Amino acid sequence: MTVELSEAAISQMLNGFSIPARPALLLEIDKELKRPEPSLKALGDLIARDVGVSAAVLKTLNSPLFGLRQKVGNVGQAAMLLGASNLKNIVTGVMLRQTAQGNASLERFWDSAEKVASINAYLCSVLPRTPRDEAYTFGLFRDCGIPIMMRRFPDYKETLVKAAAYDGPMTDVEEQQHGTSHATVGYLVARSWGLSETIGQSILWHHRPSVLENEGDAPPLARTLVAMNILAEHLHDTVFRLRDDPRWRRIGERILDYLGLHQDDYLEIRDEVQARA
Fold this sequence. Notes:
By secondary structure, the chain is mostly helical. Helices cover about 70% and strands about 0% of the residues.
């Protein structure tokens, strides 16, 4: 069942984990959004003050995989096009990525996360009722608990090896070895960074496709994001990394059916992702 946690509860559960602090820019954005009449211009001006974040936001929005119908020239235009809360989600995802810069050992991890997030965003053009900003932000945050678990537990790399050989959700192995999982940690991080409960629940369940059948476990949009992300991860592995995906052979048909897609749709999507790569 979905459970909402207070900030105090989140802080207590994250005790002992080294997580990136919520950036000051996000706190300023939230302050603006809580005004009786938030100003899109003020929001754009806040973001534009950080040149690095502004450039990264525009690069994300204008990438072929993100799939906007028009190019965005500046952050003010992005605010008008996306709306305040949607732009905040994109900025939050960008800033999470930036916190990892400087750690060369995790560059490939974050590059993969960014590609999966972008594929999620593209899939929203095929599934138009799914918000592109939430799909993208979820894609970036979904595995953010992995580097945090790596810092917290010296033997976590061994856990990843065991999980890779396990015929089931990797979170089962993590919970057995460490009493928690990167999905749980990622959920708590997303909440502490001010993301929506929908994104949090999507992170919490993203390794458990059984949530698609158990409607009471997560909100409908969270379940759609989980299914979409499984497809995005599959496309990333097969198109970008050219590797086999045994999980897709087991559940691929089920995922396509849940999303209302047929095999012909899947082939068109795969070709389009390849063309935009």
